Amino acid sequence: MWYTCNRRYERKGSMNVAKHMAGPQGGHYRLKQPQKREKHNRIPARVLKSRARLLLSGAGCIAAVLIITALLAMPHQSAEPIEAAASPEAAPGTAAESISAKASVLSKTTSTPESAFQQLGDWRLVLVNSEVPLPDDFQMTPTLFDTITVNSKMYPELTALINAAYNDEINLWIASGYRSVEEQESVLDRAVQRRMADGMTYEKAYEDARITIQAPGYSEHHTGLAVDFNDVEDDFRETEAYTWLQEHAAEYGFVERYPKGKESITGIDYEPWHYRYVGKEHAQRMNELNMCLEEYVAFLKGN
């Protein structure tokens, strides 16, 4: 069977496309135009992996930069604690290192342990100095002489001495008596602060203050048997009161505790105002022998 096909061609560009083709009954079949395939720009897998690695690397760098920036923005904290800029010690009259703490380092008062020194049995002759602290078992019963605390055991003799001076028209009064360890600490602190205010270093100020002031725990004032008279000044030795004490103090059981010429033995500079109660018989004997208390105690021990 023969078919006549009427074909109509349409030229589009350089390609001829058949639009119709005749069918058996003179009909026509519509020919499908060839469809154009879309071109997909498919990226090779290795390229995609490479780009992914680059993106991840870039994100990591950005995160690292952000973390470092945040860390740098945080306040710096030292590994060791920083001391306060104005500690109690640094501020005048206060201490972040107190003066007593420094004194415990610089002081050489504990070279002889208390247990190594045997006190005499007489409470009136208890020895307290830079090498011998106040015994733990020492009994101090306080009483007031006017406004000054003293040991009640010597109160009658002290009263008699002051009354005798008054009767002789001698201007004599008590400036200080018993001191606790805390009070002694304050006395030493103030003395060091005054010297530092004059330009001394702490070490020099402490050393200079210790010439006349014992360390806390090593002061005779803890016994209540020591008294300071009048203005507590060096020129006290030029007064009538000092002359009177040199003549009559022993009659009431008192001696000049830190006499001139005994500094190397007592460890304390000459203090004409500082007197110590030892009892009448001991006071008179010490004056006869020209001994300070350290020498007299050793003398009685037979050393």
Q: How do the strands and helices of this protein lay out in sequence?
A:
Elements: E1 8-12, E2 15-22, E3 28-30, H1 45-73, H2 99-106, E4 142-145, E5 148-151, H3 155-167, E6 174-176, H4 181-197, H5 202-209, E7 226-229, H6 240-248, E8 254-258, H7 263-266, E9 271-277, H8 280-289, H9 293-301
Antiparallel strand pairs: 1-2, 2-3, 4-5, 6-7, 7-9, 8-9
Helix pairs in contact: 4-5
Spell out the key features of this protein.
three-stranded antiparallel sheet, four-stranded antiparallel sheet, 303 residues, alpha+beta, 9 strands, 14% strand, 35% helix, elongated
Structural commentary:
By secondary structure, the protein is of the alpha+beta class. The chain is built from nine helices and nine strands. It has helices at residues 45-73, 99-106, 155-167, 181-197, 202-209, 240-248, 263-266, 280-289, 293-301, and strands at 8-12, 15-22, 28-30, 142-145, 148-151, 174-176, 226-229, 254-258, 271-277. Strand 2 and strand 3 form a beta hairpin. Helix 4 (181-197) crosses helix 5 (202-209). The termini are far apart. Mean pLDDT is 77; it is low at 1-32 and 75-114.
